[in-house]
Design a protein that fits this description.
The chain has 23 helices and 34 strands. By secondary structure, it is an alpha/beta fold. Strands 20, 21, 24, 25, 27, 29, 32 and 34 form an eight-stranded antiparallel β-sheet that branches. It has a seven-stranded antiparallel β-sheet with strand order 1-31-30-33-28-22-23. The two termini are 15 Å apart.
Length: 873
């Protein structure tokens, strides 16, 4: 690629205020490609797959015996339904994309709210608002005045650690913490409480539990897994399904319980390099032995729905894999409920789009999860595909029968409407004290004590305690992703009424014990009041799904601000107790070295006082609560040791125990009764992150979504704005999300030409990118301009303070109009005074005062420039 003229300037004025809020968006998928007719398996292939399935996959006994009277009722109802009514049962739109009148007209079988979607688009919607929406949709679904049928709809929600979309709900520790507790009875109790709080808001169905067995801790959903050990996952799956739905031999799907979903089928925790929605290359035997055990547990407990996974297995997307969805799940494992898709997951299937996917239906998908306005063409196309014979009527009848079977079992045809059910509107149950006490118990049991030099813990409450770190008084950070918002970002403590931060729990215990607490995020204190101990609470920023994918496990890679805080306190002779908030085990050797005690607290949720319960003694000095948590994930010895998993010793096919060499092994955890010989030495650990021996990796800045610690930002010379929604504007531009390859993976910016407008990525703290500036690296992005840019279009970087460098790419992008192109500019083009690559605040921005519409995606700092990279001299 050649460019005859490249300009570089530092003259652009740009506000550099860096107090921002991370942008949280829905993650989903849109497909591409032409529709293809589904190829029917030959008889020989079908026999072969059946033989393979029978060899590896057990025939599970049905958790619920077949009810002939119920089946006759289902058959009779299906026989009365039109094709249009049947397809409507298979369509699940999102609350932001349909109206009550749409429900009345089409009679959707179900609908959902995704993370960050609320009644009236109001984050602070009350339980009454949730009930009102549930009631209106329900009444519309049973109104037969238009569609001629009155099958009740059902509402599904992601309640993955409590009813986490609702203000004031009890939020329990995320699954990784519950796995460390290793207490199935407690898990069942948590699930039952979650079911109650969900039913208060009129909702019927929960998209939980996640039963992924995580093999690579770089995966952004690691904290949704209970353990790397499939045995724990199997036992927990049974317990949580029974807690949500009730016992099949007892109060199964009574008015105290909801429909559960075991997800995501199958192998989502085993993708290559821990990439979310990626490729699982496990053998079929490993797929069963490792990744299927949660389904064995969940189906044995009577789970009524299973969610298909975004990932592929050996090149085939699970949403279109007939062998897995039908031959294995439905035929061998005996599942007679329904299979629901994930967020436009059918659109990823080869030959499919979000609007059309016969292959998924033929493979065994019973309900399309289809947010956005794609639901209508999908509905119409599926009807047409049945009429043309591309999808058989028998497959449609099977899907609808499965949906109706669950609805009958759940009593939806007989129960009162959502507003009139026994728990509906009982707001006293949302965050009820007894529920919070169970969550507090779960926090205590989830804590894992990894280091306790000189038995510094437990602390006596009559001490002078300094509490430091940015997670100490931050309920959103301690709760992690899937907490009110999808990413768990854009929240304040006031968004969690009734909750307790970790600091407030410590303050209460210390005050009652006659001591004194000082809260100082940066560790400052009155020199005349030297603390007896510092408790430093720090850890990962909230994230969810692929937004949490990372390339190695080094904590705060390139930005060791928390380590600096620990060193600052240690240098003053203050004993340091580290409380680490994280969604996965991470390489924290340097932080271990600066800590006298180190507690893995995971993501404890809203009841932060559970941590103080364990850290401090009673006033008389006796232990109040001991540590009981044990690692359910192995702790890495290096940042690159991302796939260290305890061998399944009963399985002779796995690697020998000698090859298993983590820093801290699975199952480890100290107690107050531990003696010195029980402890692994975590002193004087190597702090070499092995970077010199590693190839520099690409640094994704905006790939499917904004990557932490960056946030999307727009500005003019006179105003600036952190984005907290999918649409924003200022006097110079309008920006909104758009779908390019997956849902909301690109941004469309309309510059109005009245003044200089800026859109970019910004961080609240600088990032050290010197390794990239010292190598042959490049800033790369995909960009599309709809019309010729008549004025300069600046692509730039900015560092902390008033320093920036930029190049004019207008002539370059004008060579291709109305189509995507890749632009790659050497980082050398941005070097020189006053640029400081050690303190990058904005690694990317676009700016112009031209009137133009620009789309961009996939902003990456490439470790190695390619042949098309523009060089500046």
């Amino acid at each position: 690629m050649k460019l005859t003229q490249i300009q570089r300037t530092t003259k652009l004025k740009m506000p550099m205020k860096t107090t921002v809020i991370t942008l949280g968006l829905f993650l989903g998928v849109s497909g591409c490609g032409d529709n293809q007719s589904t190829q029917q398996q030959t008889t020989e292939a079908a026999v072969t797959s059946e033989q393979t399935a029978s060899t590896i996959w057990p025939a599970l006994p049905p958790a619920i015996a077949k009810d002939e009277a119920l089946e006759a009722k289902i058959d009779a109802l299906v026989a009365k339904m039109t094709l249009e009514q049947k397809i409507a049962q298979m369509i699940q739109p999102e609350i932001r994309d349909i109206t009550v009148e749409d429900m009345r007209k089409y009679g959707f079988g179900s609908y959902l709210n995704g993370g960050g979607a609320y009644p009236n688009n109001d984050k602070h919607a009350t339980p009454a608002d949730w009930v009102a929406l549930a009631e209106s949709f329900y009444q519309a679904s049973v109104d037969d005045s238009i569609d001629g049928i009155n099958i009740p709809t059902m509402w599904g929600t992601d309640a993955v650690h409590g009813h986490n979309n609702v203000i004031g709900a009890t939020l329990f520790p995320h699954n990784i913490g519950l796995g460390a507790a290793n207490n199935p009875k407690l898990i069942e109790k948590i699930a039952a409480i979650t079911a109650q709080e969900v039913m208060v808001t009129g909702i019927d169905w929960v998209f939980a539990p996640t039963v992924a067995v995580v093999r690579d801790d770089r995966w952004g959903r690691t904290y949704e897994g209970y353990s790397e050990d499939p045995r724990i996952v199997k036992e927990y799956a049974y317990a949580i399904v029974e807690g949500l739905q009730g016992s099949v031999s007892g109060d199964f799907l009574s008015d105290q319980h909801v429909i559960s979903t075991v997800k995501h089928f199958i192998g989502d925790g085993g993708t290559e390099n821990g990439i979310d929605q990626g490729e699982n290359l496990a053998s079929e035997q490993d797929l069963y032995d490792i990744h299927a055990q949660g389904y064995v547990g969940g189906l044995n407990a009577g789970a009524q729905s299973v969610m298909a996974s975004f990932n592929s297995w050996h090149g085939e997307k699970n949403h279109g894999n007939q062998y897995l969805l039908t031959d294995v799940l439905k035929d061998r494992l005996g599942f007679d409920g329904f299979v629901v898709g994930d967020w436009n997951g059918h659109g990823q299937v080869a030959g499919c789009t979000n609007e059309s996917c016969a292959k998924s239906v033929n493979a065994g998908l019973d309900i399309f999860m289809v947010p956005t306005d794609a639901w209508k063409p999908l509905y119409e196309n599926t009807i047409a595909q049945v009429k043309s014979g591309e999808i058989s009527q028998a497959r449609i009848d099977d899907a609808v029968s499965r949906i109706l079977r669950v609805k009958f079992r759940a009593g939806l045809f007989d129960k009162p409407s959502p507003a009139n059910r026994p728990l509906s509107g009982k707001t006293e149950l949302i965050g009820q004290a007894s529920h919070r006490e169970v969550a507090r118990e779960a926090v205590r049991e989830s804590l894992v004590l990894l280091k306790n030099n000189q038995s510094i813990l437990p602390l006596k409450p009559n001490m002078k305690v300094l509490v430091a770190g940015d997670a100490a008084d931050n309920i959103g950070k301690q709760s992690g992703g899937w907490s009110i918002t999808w990413q768990g970002t854009d929240n304040k403590n006031s968004d969690f009424p009734g909750a307790t931060s970790i600091y407030s729990g410590i303050e209460q215990v210390v005050t009652q014990g006659g001591g004194k607490t000082t809260l100082s995020v940066n560790g400052d204190f009155n020199p005349e009041q030297l603390p007896d101990v510092a408790i430093v609470v720090f850890g990962e920023e909230p994230y969810a799904e692929g937004n949490g994918d990372i390339d190695n496990l080094e904590y705060q890679r390139g930005d060791k601000r928390d380590l600096a805080l620990l060193k600052k306190l240690k240098a003053q002779g203050i004993p340091v107790v580290s409380v680490f908030i994280s969604g996965r085990p991470m390489w924290v050797n340097a932080e271990f070295n600066q800590s006298d005690a180190f507690v893995a607290a995971w993501l404890p949720g809203t009841e932060g006082q559970g941590i103080a319960d364990v850290l401090f003694t009673k006033p008389d000095g006796t232990v109040a609560y001991d540590f009981v948590g044990k690692l359910s994930f192995s702790w890495p010895a290096t940042p690159q040791q991302t796939q260290v998993n305890v061998p399944l010793v009963q399985d002779k096919r796995v690697q020998a125990q000698a090859d298993y060499q983590p820093l801290i092994p699975y199952g480890y955890g100290l107690t107050y009764q531990s003696v010195a010989t029980d402890a692994i030495s975590l002193d004087a650990l190597s702090e070499d992150n092995l970077a010199a021996s590693q190839t520099l990796e690409d640094l994704a800045l905006f790939e499917r979504a904004v990557k932490s610690p960056w946030s999307m930002y727009i500005a003019t010379d006179n105003e600036q704005q952190a984005l907290t929604s999918s649409v924003a504007s200022n006097s110079a531009l309008n920006i909104r999300t758009m779908d390019r390859a997956v849902q909301e993976d690109a941004r469309l910016v309309s510059f109005n030409g009245t003044e200089q407008g800026i859109v970019g990525l910004i961080s609240s703290f600088p990032r050290d990118l010197r390794a990239y500036s010292n190598s042959d690296s490049a800033l790369s992005l995909s960009i599309k301009v709809e019309q010729s840019v008549s004025k300069p279009l600046w692509l730039g970087l900015a560092c902390q303070g008033d320093c920036r460098q930029q190049v004019d790419i207008a002539k370059l992008v004008n060579t291709k109009l109305a189509e995507w192109q890749n632009v790659s500019i050497s980082l050398a083009c941005f070097a020189g005074e006053p640029m400081d690559f050690g303190k990058i605040a904005m690694p990317f921005y676009l700016s112009t005062d031209a009137k133009v519409e620009i789309s961009f995606s996939d902003v990456v700092i490439k470790a190695t420039a390619n042949d098309n990279t523009i060089q500046c001299h």
